[in-house]
Every structure is written in C-alpha cells, then in structure tokens.
Amino acid sequence: MGKKAWQIILLIVQILITIIYGAIIVHMTLILVKDYGTKSIVTIQGYFPQFVILISSLVPQIIIRIRRKMHTQDGEIFPILFTMIALQATLIVPRYVALTEVVFISPRILTYLERFSLIGTASLFLLSSLRFYGFNSPRMSWYIVIVLAFSLFISVIAPVNYTSSSSLEILSGKYDAMIQLSILLFYAATILTLVISAAREKGAVAIKRLIGFIFLIAGLYLGFSSLLIPVILSSTLYIVGIVIISNNVKESF
Fold first, then answer.
1. What residue ranges define each of the domains in the chain, with the CATH number in brackets?
2. What predicted TM-score, i.e. pTM, was given to this entire model?
3. What is the pLDDT of residue 180?
4. Cα–Cα distance, 235 to 81 (Å, whole number)
5. Residue 171 to residues 50, 123, 159: CA-CA distances in angstroms?
C-alpha cells in the first residue's frame, strides 16, 4: 500500500476518532448542563481542552491535503502524529462512564488506549524532531512502526490496578510516575532537538516550527489540569500552535 493511501486511511481514522469522542463530549456536556445548570461549568472546563485539541488537530491534516504536501517531512510525520494526539481524547471516557454509568468498553482496553495515546504521542514528537533535525531515511515508515510498537508494548506490560470499572486510577503509583517521567523526558528531548535544529538552519521555517511545537506540547501538557487558568492556557497555546504549524506546512518543502 502506497504512502498516499496510508495518509488517507489515517485521515479517515482521525475523523472517526473526532466524531466518536466529539459525540461523547457533547453528550456528557448536555447531561451536566441539564442536571447541574451553571454549576456544571467547573466540571466542563476540566475536559474542555481535550475537545479543543480533538477538533483543531484535524487542521494540519486538511492543510497537508489541500496544499499537496504529502511528500514533505510534514506530510510524512504529521498524519500519524495528529491521529495519536486525537486518540488522547480517550482520557475523557472514564468521566463519561462515571457520569452515565454506561460501561461500553473494557476497563483494561481503555487503560491500554490511554497509555498508548500518551506514550505514542510523546514518542512521535521526538521522532518528528529527529526527522526535522536531519534523521532522514527511506525506512522512516518502519521507524514509525517500531516507535508505535514500542509504545504499545510499554502500555500493555505495565500493571493495572482497578478500584472500580470506571476508576480513573488505572496505574499503580510507581508505574504511573515512571510513564509520566518518560513522557516529560521525550518532550524535553523534542524541544532540545528542535532548538539545535533551528540554531543550525537559522531559517524562519525552523524557528516557526520550534515555536509551534513548543506551543503544542505545552497545550497538551496543561490540558490535563482542571483548573481555570491552565485550561485557558492549554486551549489558547494549542490553537496558536496549530495555526503556526499549519502556516509552516505551506512554507515547507
């Protein structure tokens, strides 16, 4: 199967993810507003960034298709990266299950999806930075497969602790800390690699890419908070990052 076919498949998958999780978020919001009125705002703001990230992550994919940038570095990495970012909306499912008491997915599978989306996203960010740094190979597709396979393996082997079918406490403290630390290290390595790349290239495209990636990563990280200021920052930074990255796609070769 050719590269274009895989890009189309990934776009379709991301659209399906967006529709499914978007519907879950909308349904959950309607229930909260109906049952709690204005008091539901505090709860809604806790998952609002996930909705913003989910919807806006489609923009770079669409720009790549419109601008016919499928064969660029952006077109090679972004389809799978933003699909994995969209999959992070899995994190809102435990909230939905707790609210509706409708268990439509195995807690174990839910755990694997949550871990896979988080580890896979961080790993692909790092691979993306290495790609832009100059790590060019005709076997890049295989490296992407290896990275995702590694992420899935780590997601599956870590022990799972359940206190209830809808519990958010899905990882033991030790493994949770290890996974979170690994993700932070991947993101730090990503930013460092892009800084070195921008300093070496000394071009506007590389600098914009660096700023865009920093905003995306900061938006994703802050999106886990339910406090008002981090929620506003998360949504704002991610949208600005998407705008920068999307404009950068137009200028990339």
1. 3-251 (1.20.1070.10)
2. 0.88
3. 84
4. 18
5. 21, 20, 7
